[in-house]
Amino acid sequence: MAYRLLGRATLLGAGLGMALSGAAVSGTYDITVDRIEIDTGDFTKTGIGYNGSQTPTVLRFREGEEVTINVTNNLSEETSIHWHGLILPFDQDGVPEISYDGIAPGETFTHRFPIVQSGTYWFHSHSGFQEPDGAYGAIIIEPEGRPLARFDKEYVVQLTDKHPHSGDRIMRNLKMSADYYNREQRTLFDFISDASENGVGATLEERRMWGEMRMMPTDIEDVQGFTPLINGLGPDQNWTGLFEKGERVLLRFINSSAMTYFDVRIPGLKMTVVAADGNPVQPVPVDEFRIGVAETYDVIVRPRTEDAHTIFAESMGRTAYARGTLAVREGLEAPVPELRESPRLTMADMGMDHGSMAGMDHSAMTGGQDGEHTMPDGTTMKGMDHGSMAGMDHSTMGGEHTMADGTTMKGMDHGSMAGMDHGSMGMSTGDPFYAAGSGLVPKAANGGKFLSYADLKAAKPLYEDRDATREIELRLTGNMERYIWSINGVKYEDADPIVLNYGERVRFKFVNETMMTHPMHLHGMWSILDNDNGKWDPVKHTVSVSPGTTVFMETEVDAPGQWAFHCHLSYHAAAGMFRKVVVVGGPEDQRAELDPVSGG
Amino acid sequence: MDRGTVLAGAIAPALLMALPAAADPLVWGFQAEQNEYRVTDGDNVYAWDFDAFIGTDEARFVWRSEGEYAFGEDAFETLENQARVQVPISDFWDAVAGVRLDTPSGPDRVFGVIGLHGLAPQFIETDIDFFIADDPAFRFEIEYEGLITNRIILTPSFELDLPFTDDEEIGLGGFGPSMELGLRLSYDLVDRAIAPYVGVHYERSFGESSLLAQREGENPGAVFFVVGARLQF
Fold first, then answer.
1. What interface predicted TM-score (ipTM) does this complex get?
2. If phi over 0 gives left and psi between -120 and 50 gives alpha, with beta otherwise, what is residue A409?
3. Inter-residue contact A58 to A99 (CB < 8 Å)
4. Which residues contact A483 (CB under 8 A, 6 or more apart)?
5. pTM of the shown model
6. Residue B150: its chain A contacts at CB < 8 A?
């Protein structure tokens, strides 16, 4: 029944798409914002839905189209819609107090903007906690030219973390006690098992260190107790996508969660990642990938038998899973895996374990190539000689030399290193986008390939590669106990806007000083993730920054106006990890009427 | 009301006025750490200890109420209400200023309050309060939540009250402290909103205060079995 609803929404979208595929260059779309009952299979609650449904609305546009979208607010409070990842005039971006005044109850706001890109995106309310309450949908934009990959069928797989509490209540509870929703805290029994494994002394010492900081290694998911949904359906409601044997199926994964990262796999099927955040990437075959909040990944799977397959998306903290099925007909099921053990943060995630890199002999690496390599802690290594590294005595690097260097090399894909046995180097972490020795480093359930940010290479870069004109450091900061989140120690309410100049290329340096992972989202302009792939650096709209790491991204400042820039975890953004960005200058007719010093 | 009370009472609104005029959202909540029936071989007692708060990240106004009602005597052995303003001064600590009003069955007292509230290392909830009046006093309270499981929680607590002068009318002798020790085992029944518990509560006075109690024919020490429910909304 619920699937039928989704089918109808998809067909509606497809129908509009087809109607437009003629010579039509403009389309009109209607969205109503409604209060609805949501049934997750585990619980029912009152929430918000677009077009009266808990099945996310799918908008299907064509690149080059001029869209008109009428948004009617049937709520008793103000609403708004932000078109996440779309490049558009700032007054169409849908952020109250930054782009416009929002949409009052009972009113209809008409968005008009040209579609200048293609791929998988999404849209959501930017007012209060309406997005966690259910106000989200998907956007598919067909390219003007060739499709990004060959496929026979396509499905949106939109994930969310539906909580029985309203967003307002969750925020208030977090402010009252930050661990309100953490039911993965360490207990007496964990102490006993740790003590029997590592000894009482070591366990006491370890507990003392965390207690000294008044922090918890289990602090991975702030908000637990949710039911993950795929396209509006809970695990037992089992969203199902149909295929025929041998077909290539494009799955457009969108993480519309308020707070939850998911590790996604389809046991028995290899997934080929063909796009990230809407933009095509050079195909990467993987067994599993982690999707941060607000990110999208397009993957292609090709089932060669008629067997059903489970789409299994475990939350990063392993407290819940989303589940759907790919099958040749409705009603089939495949085995559903067990949740894996919850990860634990380590001192490395606190940014306190860089000492383990000290033993490395950097001198052995000097000379040769003049690449510059960014270590996760922000230091750079110039001129690494990869040739001589291939001959390094790996045994001396030992188990304690946990990461950084080797993993950076891996991302560089130098032929001479292809044969390196990372395992023998003790590099269990294998991903430069996590702190050395981090407890969050993902591993594929089947021991195979887990996608890393380092694997993402733009299929067709959107911008010419050039040096940044300046660097802006943004330290991601917070006070977990008070549930205050901030940038450079200042929360949104107290902060001046970030002022950028039209035409510059800004290099943002994110230094994560907190123990949480933050998906940073800049509106209106692309975020070019620096993952050491040079001109092939992938173009994203949301860049995830793991605890204890430094991540760089560059932005070509090509969109005048004022924009939002924030952590996409709903309660982090609301608690202050948010900035207004003002772009000054630019073409006269696009320039914003604004006052750069006013407002947060 | 003496000058000390007036002074501390005046600090509270001053702390509020020092706030930047930021458009910070209001949060509010109610937390009752103790809400219990105390059973002993003498007079049984209903006791509570709650904080109700409203405020922002920059300051919270807290109504703190504590009391003990003795069923046999049909009297409030203690009844204490504080109006407190809490302002963050570090990552884990708030400065506190306010007024405390004691209106038990018997003589009333008014104090100014200056103190610290926060989380000490090793997750120990801590309150340190100076009560300013003609007969000033000091109070130190700590509490720790020990997780047996993520829902079964063992909470040891300790409170020390130290009067600095004699106030014989209400049974306090200068530097004669009284102490409360508690151990409560709770189960989070509904989220963290309702957590029924059982436990033991021990209280005892020392020094001059103890002698005054004995003179009144009261026992300076008592052990209670307690049953109650922690509340948090």
1. 0.90
2. alpha
3. no
4. A174, A175, A178, A571, A575
5. 0.86
6. 183-185, 187
